[in-house]
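fwd from M.: "can u put these together and see what the complex looks like"

so here's what she sent:
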Amino acid sequence: MTAMAVRAAVLPAVGAPLEVTGIDLPEPGPGRVRVRLAAAGVCHSDLSLSNGTMRLPVPAVLGHEGAGTVVAAGEGVTHVAPGDGVVLNWAPSCGACPACARGEVWLCAGALDGAAQVHARRADDGTDLYPGLNVAAFAEETVVPASCVLPAPEGVPLADAALLGCAVLTGYGAVHHSARVRPGETVAVFGVGGVGLAALQSARIAGASTIVAVDVSPAKEELARAAGATDYLVASDTTARQIRALTGKEGVDVAVECVGRATTIRTAWESTRRGGRTTVVGIGGKDQQVTFNALEIFHWGRTLSGCVYGNSDPARDLPVLAGHIRAGRLDPGALVTERIALDGIPAAFDNMLAGKGGRALVVF
Ligand SMILES: [Zn+2]
Ligand SMILES: [Zn+2]
């Protein structure tokens, strides 16, 4: 352990408030990399880990969407070197499991193996700490497996690159890899948070004609329209009917659900035309039961798909996203509604719970 501690936001136990405190990181051993964070986005999955909707070993340093600069690389690390800008990848693939063999690296069986390995200690009492979703980005510095860093794309500021690691890859992938939106198709995006805003921008890139954004908050209309929404609806009991009215009574070709609630998934599905496709990106709890009757499944001929990390291969997709950014088609910075310090993360969690804002970005 090094003598100098770095500051980090630690989740002491599920349900407990985050504590900003000093942590001691080890020198990176073989195959590991030490990264100084430039920025880290606050994602809904961090909130889900803190309140127990998703379970991983604790106490943990949360944060899984970040970018920074390599300060040290252990033996055998060849694809990045000290001084390089990197994007953190919270879902590294092992290359050896059946999913990886099929090329479905986002379903890698070993993606979260690192989450069960102690990566740091609290500076005050020496308690072992786990790295949340592998990368422990809510910290001034982190030490991660080399497979969890990708070279940052050239010409993209690290604060923007941070968002590529989760929200943008997920939202873009939902539209391009899962729903496979084609030019001229109509799209509805449910939930205008970081992922939803990325999905709206991606629908615009795909050449969608009508792009409907739906959110419980009327305050997000401007944000949604700037991201490409042609129509904005405040969620209600009649949302599906309103969407059909906007699309010649047909329903949209594609619905992208970024909320993870049973009612929203059901509404998204009902908003699509016969034969339409619904991609569920939102991560909900086990208590969220969605029901369908057998006759309607037959009658509507619709597809309902899950989507993990945008069905993305980060190594393949990051350069593609960078190309869209450099061409001015994709703007990760437009997802950010608040720039905060580490101490601001609990308030950012409260905002997410209340359905306010887009992405909060921790800037170091
Ligand atoms: Zn995330
Ligand atoms: Zn694998």
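replying to her w this: The longest strand covers residues 32-42.
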